[in-house]
Amino acid sequence: MVDDDSDSEENERGLESKNPSQPKKPLSSPMPSSSSTPSLLNKEQAEILKYVNRPESPSIFITGSAGVGKSFLLQEIIKSRKARWSGSAGAVAITAPTGIAASNIGGRTIHSFAGIGLGKGDEEKIIKKAAYAKTSRERWWLCETLVIDEISMLDSSLFEMLSQIAQEVKQNNRPFGGIQLILSGDFYQLPPVKGRFAFTSPLWAQAELRSFVLKEVIRQRGDSKFVNLLNKFRTGQIGSLELDDINECHEDVFKGFPNDGILPTKLYCKNRDVDAENRHHLAELKTKPITFRSRDVWKGNNRKKFEIDFLLQQIQRKVNDMICLKVGCQVMCLKNLPNEDLVNGSRGVVVGFEGNGPAYPIVKWTGDMTSTVKPAIFDQGVSGLLLQRMQLPLKLAWALTIHKCQGMTISRAEMKLSDAFESGQAYVALSRIESKDGLKLTGERVTQKDVRTNAAVTKFYATLDNQQGGGEKRKAEGGGSSKPHSAKRKDHHDVGDDQYCMGDTF
């Protein structure tokens, strides 16, 4: 669902400026970029970070198969760009096409940032409204770097519309008004709901994006055979050998998961199947339910109702304000917790609750590790307003949708690939798994027809593979053009005996 961050009231609520048509920029200069790179980056990631921090602020496209560390690298790039524009609030806009994808990188939907609501209707009117309503105009005017993650889900028409809004606000005919673009994603994964891929637009070439293809797989590191199999599914280059290999995980011949009480997460294509599965299993448990309510803290003075509502909606996508758990619950970790050796997507089962003080859940994780899960802080911010939610970093995990698991690493999963209905869906599901031992297939055996790829995507990646050094700078025919591209929460209730509110000292 797209966030409708409507700007209908922004003309009255926008920030003041001496020139009402041109918002003020903070009086600050770019800070020098640090020459050092985080030690956790591998060689190819470090090279990309160094390139993006060049003085000319080049635009880039980061791609590669699932599990190569695109999201991790993107977070490091965001940190470095924020450091460069230190003191310039709003200089780095962090976005993605969907709420889930945006939450994963601590950003907002591109629709919300751009001020285009649902983005439907008369294109010219949408552009003018977004460019001249004060709040959205302020965002665009301050923006120096625009990050768009999961670019595969953004269609070409929207890509072009965003550029035109930026050009109008910046009064600059360069693509996106001269804003640095940081695009990330894999076009072999989930496509736009409607329309064509962004790379099919002439604007893609005009933007002079340098493409970098990450090659080193991190998620399935050490299992080269499984990595090769996944790459075949990614590109659709599968034959009888690959089908026989993946069908070794079919329920007819599957050897079973370890008998440690941790069930596989079921991946579904549709939300209704996920909700029904989780409700059913929770109700089946005869153990005592304990409810944990979050504690929310607001920081900043810019507390406009539509921004409060927006942040509550966004943070709810990260972690629920109320979580009901029972002994026997299948759960998933929602945050990377290095000290606990847990990542976003780690799977476990609730085996008890602490007896003293708050009854925090005790979770047995895959690998026979057991830990007490305590509240963590989740941040969501926009326009000088920060919402911090303290809540257990857990969610029920008998089932998830394939869309919601994008970007996760899952240790055990069960899926029915014959239900896949769009290109890349089967690959996204399969590539969440750390190893083949963690995969169980149900329903019909996988056949060639279940593996859908897009011919335009295959052709696009062939051009990238022919480039050297991670991709050459792409220019429009004739050396590019400077002409604008055009194309047609609620309040908490009283807390009961079996309910806990997070963090009295938070």
From TrEMBL:
Composition bias, Acidic residues: 1-10
Gene Ontology biological process terms, A to Z: DNA recombination; DNA repair; telomere maintenance
Keyword Transmembrane helix in annotation: no
DNA helicase Pif1-like DEAD-box helicase domain location: 41-238
Keyword match Metal-binding: no
DNA helicase Pif1-like 2B domain: residues covered: 320-353
Enzyme class per UniProt: isomerase
Any one GO molecular-function label of the UniProt entry: hydrolase activity
Alphabetical keyword list: ATP-binding, DNA damage, DNA recombination, DNA repair, DNA-binding, Helicase, Hydrolase, Isomerase, Nucleotide-binding
Gene3D superfamilies named in the record: P-loop containing nucleotide triphosphate hydrolases
E.C. code: 5.6.2.3
Cofactor(s) demanded: Mg(2+)
Catalytic activity field: ATP + H2O = ADP + phosphate + H(+)
UniProt biased composition (Low complexity): 17-40
Region feature Disordered, mapped onto this chain: 1-40, 466-506
InterPro entries per UniProt: DNA_helicase_pif1-like_DEAD, P-loop_NTPase, Pif1-like_2B_dom, PIF1_helicase
SUPFAM superfamilies from the UniProt entry: P-loop containing nucleoside triphosphate hydrolases
Family: Belongs to the helicase family.
Protein name: ATP-dependent DNA helicase
Originating organism: Triparma columacea
